């Protein structure tokens, strides 16, 4: 006879307590695991963001520059072609030496010049090309500081170490302080980081080229992998007869999804570069290689999405006399589309973050030009990060972290898009 | 027949048939006692029989209630549907038989106040047949026995014959002596009541036949009561038991 | 059978892989009457129904032997177009399954793919008359562009019936059309079935015997893949010939 009511035997009470204890332990372990994961994530993001965000600003120094017509436009023609040949470096130096007249030694003068980026003279040239009427006048202009000055103002270069171990000597520090005290030193948003391409000079290096390369690569991947993947999945799921051959194909597609990406890189190298002799280091080869890698993901996601369409919809369509192709194209495919898109976006996100296969096909080169077509030499965002991580200059460290932030931002946006698509459409029937 | 998947369905059906059988038993006893009261000229017994009609009516209401409940809750089909509708009809037939028994008892009470008549001896014989019919038809109902029911159905003819001859005899008595008219009329009604009981037993037999076979009985029912067409005792002389 | 039969089935055997679902079924579906198929779960009644418009074709590993004639023509003939067959033999399913499209498009889909209309006006007419026949028009007239899935269960099922009759089939197969509906919605669908038999031949699978008794003129009782008894609905439900039918309809099974 089962005891009724709340009275239970002592043994039952003990058992019950033990059960609750076990439940609490399990819950605590779960919370601990999630907490640990969150902690590591926060640590990672925190370190990347704290190291990377300074790269989105750069240091500039103001200087009174006399645009002497003899230096800039010796012929006096005023033509852009002639202006481009002007001796802007000397104009910069003259202005500097005029500002610090007591600096006369060659070494000291060189140290002074090194406060400015090597690109400063190109900036001056751009200004004159924009405003030719500045010739013969003296203007106060802002010029990009050298990476070391940049690091100093951002606090990345410590001042309290012995001079010998510093990138800037005491005199240079004094000059920087002098500029700063006079209000001639500022930090501004570094637009060049997004538009510029890679450079040997950290203060000039940007991710523009890598972004363009990634864009072309992913475009190729999407344009090829999406229709191919969806078509293959629709055939396998809806039309293919169930036999050994299709089973074999199915097993292989599932296996392909688990193949390490570097193997796809080797495959791309062997097929697209060696066999088809496509130009190496280009977005087209990168896109094709990533397409091979993304295809299984898209096929699997599409098949899952197709299988998730309720059979009642298929029956309804068959019931009113739709042909098999009509059933799929009018009903099943539209209903599966959110799932297909989600799978595709996740596949593309994986492709965006992929480095290894691109290394194999030579998209790891130092490329200064921003690619404007799939057949241009290009690099990709993750590869750019890989390259900068290898660079010895201190300035590239923050560039790398900033590039990681940009990459993560893209990945988060893509995943969020996938979630939104799924949420919006999943409960339509 | 196997049991229903829903056990309480069977219980309710059993309760209904049980009530009918109880009703039948009571009616049977009522008739027997009414006849005893008539033969023994016992007005007290007669009064008791009249009182006994009330429990029969109560049982009939009970059957009504059970049938409605079964129809509403179980949506009976096929054999169950036939059993339930048959039971409803049977209970109403039994209730009528009970009414007739009470009527017989009433007249037995009245007859005990006057001088005994000779034809009284025929009545118990007739009643015994009808009692047998009621008993057998209830057995047939319990056992779903068509043959037994058909047997009852055919025995009604005999009752009708007895009734015809009794009618003739009573008519003769009344013609002989007008003082006989009162007791003879009572006896005539008693005989008629018993004959009607037989008819109801026959009805029940027909109902049982439908309940078991699912088709209505298509044989022509034996009808022996010629009295509606009788003007003198001689009219009944020759035609006897021929069917009309 | 006193009436002309629309469909004649003889010696029908169905296999799902190695399992046999139907054994040598012979039956006739009377024209412009409702024939009900009853029997316990897994008895093959749905399988039988789905043979009548070859819906079993889309099930992997299903094999059908025997003859199914529609107006005397074998629907399993090699040269028969299944799409055309399903235009003549429509189907309504157990769960209301409107397409996730508008009410209008749900009904218009069949006529569109079969090319039954020449212009939008004709299509509008078909949609309206189908919805009227399905007894749904007044309820949805002012929201034709609302999604079909926004309707109540009973309305959805009537929408599915409207969708089925929009292509003017000759036979409508219904596979437990009321099993997911509440009693009032069920009553409406039953009333509708009663009206539809004026124009269509109907075969309906139902688990609800009272429903079979109410809506049909002929009833077939299936058990373990065999057609046990087939005849007038009234006879089946008041006085079946077979003991197995009796036991099933009175609730004495197994």
Question: What's the quick description here?
Answer:
Chain A is mostly helical. Helix content of chain A is 64%, strand content 5%. Chain A has helices at residues 10-52, 69-72, 80-84, 88-99, 106-113, 120-130, 147-153, 170-181, 192-195, 208-239, 244-256, 261-275, 283-308, 311-319, 324-352, 356-360, 381-390, 395-425; strands at residues 57-66, 138-144, 185-189.
Word description of this protein:
With 429 residues, chain A is mostly helical. Chain A is 64% helix and 5% strand. Chain A has helices at residues 10-52, 69-72, 80-84, 88-99, 106-113, 120-130, 147-153, 170-181, 192-195, 208-239, 244-256, 261-275, 283-308, 311-319, 324-352, 356-360, 381-390, 395-425, and strands at residues 57-66, 138-144, 185-189. In chain A, helix 4 packs across helix 6 and helix 10 (208-239) packs parallel to helix 13. Chain B has 244 residues and is mainly alpha-helical. Chain B has one domain: Phosphate transport system protein phou homolog 2, domain 2 (Methane Monooxygenase Hydroxylase, Chain G, domain 1, Up-down Bundle). Chain B has eight helices and no strands. The radius of gyration of chain B is 20 Å and the shape is elongated. Chain C has helices at residues 45-51, 82-88, 103-114, 120-133, 137-140, 153-165, 183-196, 209-215, 233-238, 243-249; strands spanning 5-16, 19-30, 34-38, 62-70, 73-74, 89-92, 171-175, 201-205, 218-223, 226-232. The longest helix of chain C is centred in the middle third of the chain and has 14 residues, at 120-133. A six-stranded mixed β-sheet of chain C has the order 6-7-8-3-9-10, sandwiched between helices. Chain C has one domain (5-249): 3-Layer(aba) Sandwich (Rossmann fold). Chains in contact: A-C, B-C. Chain A binds chain C through residues 242, 310, 312-323, 326, 330-331, 335, 428-429, and chain C through 53, 55, 58, 60, 83-87, 90-93, 95, 97-100, 109-110, 113-114, 149, 160, 163-164, 166-167.
């Amino acid at each position: 006879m089962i005891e009724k009511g709340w009275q239970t035997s002592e043994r039952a009470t003990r058992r019950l307590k033990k059960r609750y204890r076990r439940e609490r332990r399990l819950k605590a372990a779960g919370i601990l695991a999630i907490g640990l994961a969150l902690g590591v994530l926060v640590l990672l993001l925190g370190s990347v963001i704290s190291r990377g965000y300074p790269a989105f600003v750069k240091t500039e120094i103001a200087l009174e520059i006399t645009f002497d017509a003899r230096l800039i436009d010796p012929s006096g023609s005023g033509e852009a072609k002639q202006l481009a040949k002007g001796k802007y470096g000397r104009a910069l130096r003259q202005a500097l030496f005029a500002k610090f007249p007591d600096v006369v030694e060659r070494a000291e003068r060189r140290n002074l010049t090194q406060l400015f980026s090597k690109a400063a003279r190109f900036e001056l040239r751009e200004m004159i090309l924009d405003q030719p009427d500045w010739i013969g006048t003296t203007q106060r202009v802002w010029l990009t500081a050298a990476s070391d000055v940049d690091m100093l103002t951002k606090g990345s270069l410590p001042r309290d170490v012995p001079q010998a171990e510093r990138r800037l000597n005491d005199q240079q520090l004094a000059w920087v302080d002098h500029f700063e005290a006079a209000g001639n030193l500022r930090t501004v948003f570094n637009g060049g980081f997004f538009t510029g391409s890679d450079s040997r000079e950290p203060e000039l290096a940007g991710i523009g080229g890598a972004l363009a390369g990634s864009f072309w690569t992913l475009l190729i991947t999407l344009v090829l992998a999406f229709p191919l993947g969806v078509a293959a999945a629709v055939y396998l799921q809806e039309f293919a007869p169930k036999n050994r051959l299709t089973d074999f194909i199915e097993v292989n597609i599932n296996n392909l999804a688990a193949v390490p990406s570097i193997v796809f890189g080797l495959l791309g190298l062997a097929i697209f570069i060696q066999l088809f002799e496509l130009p190496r280091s280009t977005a087209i080869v990168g896109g094709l290689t990533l397409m091979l890698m993304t295809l299984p993901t898209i096929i699997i996601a599409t098949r899952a999405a197709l299988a998730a369409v309720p059979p009642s919809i298929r029956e309804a369509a068959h019931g009113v006399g739709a042909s098999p192709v009509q059933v799929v194209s009018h009903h099943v495919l539209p209903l599966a589309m959110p799932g297909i898109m989600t799978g595709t976006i996740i596949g593309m996100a994986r492709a965006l973050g992929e480095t290894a296969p691109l290394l194999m096909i030579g998209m790891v080169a130092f490329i200064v030009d921003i690619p404007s077509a799939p057949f241009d030499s290009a690099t990709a965002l993750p590869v750019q990060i890989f390259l900068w991580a290898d660079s010895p200059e201190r300035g590239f460290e923050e560039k790398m972290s900033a590039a990681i932030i940009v990459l993560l931002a893209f990945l988060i946006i893509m995943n969020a898009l996938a979630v939104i698509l799924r949420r919006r459409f999943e409960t339509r029937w | 027949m196997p049991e229903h998947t829903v056990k309480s369905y069977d219980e309710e059906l059993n309760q209904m048939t049980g009530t009918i059988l109880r009703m039948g038993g009571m009616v049977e006893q009522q008739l027997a006692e009414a006849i005893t009261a008539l033969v023994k000229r016992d007005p007290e017994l007669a009064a008791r029989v009249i009182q006994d009609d009330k429990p029969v009516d109560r049982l009939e209401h009970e059957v009504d209630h059970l049938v409605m409940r079964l129809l509403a809750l179980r949506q009976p089909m096929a054999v169950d549907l036939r059993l339930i509708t048959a039971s409803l009809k049977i209970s109403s037939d039994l209730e009528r038989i009970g009414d007739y028994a009470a009527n017989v008892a009433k007249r037995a009470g009245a007859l005990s106040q006057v001088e005994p008549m000779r034809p009284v001896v025929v009545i118990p014989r007739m009643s015994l047949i009808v009692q047998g019919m009621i008993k057998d038809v209830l057995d047939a109902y319990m056992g779903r026995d068509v043959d037994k029911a058909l047997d009852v159905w055919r025995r009604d003819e005999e009752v009708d014959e007895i009734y015809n001859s009794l009618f003739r005899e009573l008519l003769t008595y009344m013609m002989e002596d007008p003082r006989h008219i009162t007791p003879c009329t009572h006896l005539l009604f008693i005989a008629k009541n018993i004959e009607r009981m037989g008819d109801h037993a026959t009805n029940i037999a027909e109902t049982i036949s439908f309940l078991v076979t699912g088709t209505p009985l298509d044989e022509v029912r034996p009808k022996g009561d010629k009295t509606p067409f009788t003007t003198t005792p001689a009219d009944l002389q020759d035609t006897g038991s021929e069917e009309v | 059978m006193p009436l002309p039969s629309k469909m004649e089935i003889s010696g029908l055997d169905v296999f799902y892989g190695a399992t046999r679902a139907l054994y040598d079924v012979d039956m006739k579906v009377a024209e412009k009457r409702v024939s009900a198929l009853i029997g316990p779960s897994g008895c093959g009644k749905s399988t039988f129904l789905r043979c009548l418009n070859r819906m079993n074709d889309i099930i992997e590993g299903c094999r059908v032997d025997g003859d199914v004639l529609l107006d005397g023509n074998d629907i399993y003939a090699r040269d028969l177009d299944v799409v055309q067959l399903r235009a003549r033999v429509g189907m309504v399913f157990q769960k209301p399954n409107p397409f996730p499209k508008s009410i209008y498009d749900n009904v218009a889909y069949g006529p569109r793919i079969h090319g039954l209309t020449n212009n939008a006006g004709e299509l509008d007419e078909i949609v309206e008359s189908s919805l009227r026949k399905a007894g749904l028009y007044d309820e949805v007239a002012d929201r034709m562009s609302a999604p079909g899935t926004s309707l109540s269960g009973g309305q959805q099922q009537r929408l599915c019936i409207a969708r089925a009759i929009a292509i003017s089939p000759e036979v409508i197969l219904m596979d437990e059309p009321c099993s997911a509906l509440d009693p009032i919605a069920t009553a409406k669908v039953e009333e509708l079935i009663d009206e539809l038999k004026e124009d269509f031949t109907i075969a309906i699978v139902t688990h609800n015997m009272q429903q079979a008794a109410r809506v049909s003129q002929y009833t077939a009782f299936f058990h373990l893949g065999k057609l046990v008894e087939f005849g007038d609905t009234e006879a089946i439900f008041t006085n079946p010939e077979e003991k197995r039918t009796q036991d099933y309809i009175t609730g004495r099974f197994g």
